[in-house]
Design a protein that fits this description.
Blueprint (H helix, E strand, L loop, with lengths): L2 H6 L4 E6 L6 E6 L4 E2 L1 H4 L5 E10 L2 H22 L3 H11 L1 H6 L6 H4 L17 H10 L7 E9 L10 E8 L3 H7 L5 E2 L3 H36 L5 E8 L2 E4 L3 E6 L7 E6 L2 E6 L2 E8 L3
Antiparallel strand pairs: 1-2, 2-10, 3-7, 4-6, 4-8, 5-6, 5-13, 9-10, 11-12, 12-13
Length: 290
């Protein structure tokens, strides 16, 4: 299917733009007459965090961190079992804020996360019992995340990146909770009661995904401390949402495998990841643990 031809025929269509970074697209609609397409955002807020570690990017070090990560993760999952219904609802409303307040990362992490990692218009009351149960189970399992270790290979010097340092990519989102919510939805007019309910439910999923990515980032940071000591710094460079729906005040935007504007971000170029700063390539990351 030609995405542009499909959207041009849809009500309220304004603009279609291909994404040069991840190969997807962004499409804008007139928010006054737009429709929400839940399937476009699915899996909702699948995204990637790019994290650096002030440690030489070598396979042996990556394996030590990965081993510590699995040990830490098991302990965290046991803690998650005691969250209860109120705790899960906090993820739906607070997003990354919940994770940081629970000691998974630092305040600075919010500043490099798109939308600061939270949609304020979420409403947990619109989440069905069945979907809520899926959310509880997903919080006990991070197996849907793809975590890889890399070495930073810079073409240009940057104060926030050091050539040869280790980097980690955290690819994931809301897991099966996204499917559970989206599968209950259909195409609806945005400016309607049903549309607002749909928008609020998608926000819950997005917040849940931001919280989960931040939890994983926090566990990696703990694992680095366990392995190399607390003097070794772990820094989140960016957290990019790939699939998302949002109202920017002028239009309703749908993104699929596409990222927003970041001063520093990761782009997929052929078979490698390149680091882009202000639309200029400054280097790449080289896989070290496979």
């Amino acid at each position: 299917m030609n995405n542009m031809n499909f959207f041009e025929k849809e009500k309220g269509f304004l603009k279609y733009q291909k994404d040069n970074c991840w190969g997807g697209y962004k499409v804008d609609f007139d928010r006054r007459i737009a429709y929400i397409y839940p399937s476009i955002a699915s899996p909702v807020n699948l995204g990637v965090s790019f994290v650096t570690i002030e440690q030489r990017g070598e396979k042996a070090s990556a394996l030590k961190i990965r081993e510590a990560f699995h040990s830490r993760k098991s302990k965290i999952i046991r803690r998650m079992k005691d969250m209860g219904k109120r705790g899960i609802k906090s993820l739906f409303t607070k997003g990354i804020r919940w994770a940081i307040d629970t000691a998974f990362g630092i305040e600075e992490d919010m500043k490099v996360t798109e939308f600061s990692g939270v949609f304020s218009f979420s409403d947990p009351t619109v989440i069905s019992y069945e979907a809520f149960e899926v959310a509880k189970n997903v919080m006990m399992d991070f197996s849907d995340f793809e975590i890889k270790f890399w070495r930073v290979d810079l073409d240009k010097r940057r104060t926030f990146l050091k050539n040869g340092d280790m980097a980690v990519t955290i690819l994931g989102g809301a897991g099966g909770f996204s499917d559970a919510v989206v599968n209950e939805m259909k195409k609806v007019k945005y400016c309607s009661d049903e549309g607002r309910t749909t928008y609020s439910a998608l926000a819950c999923v997005a917040n849940y995904a931001w919280a989960r990515r931040q939890i994983v980032k926090g566990i990696i940071e703990m694992s680095v401390f366990d392995t190399f000591g607390k003097s070794v710094r772990t820094r989140k460079i960016c957290d990019m949402s790939l699939n998302i729906i949002y109202d920017n005040g002028q239009s309703l935007t749908h993104r699929k495998n596409a990222v927003g504007k970041f001063s520093t971000c990761l782009c997929k170029f052929k078979d490698e990841f390149v680091i882009v700063d202000n639309d200029s390539k400054i280097g790449r990351i080289v896989l070290i643990d496979e």
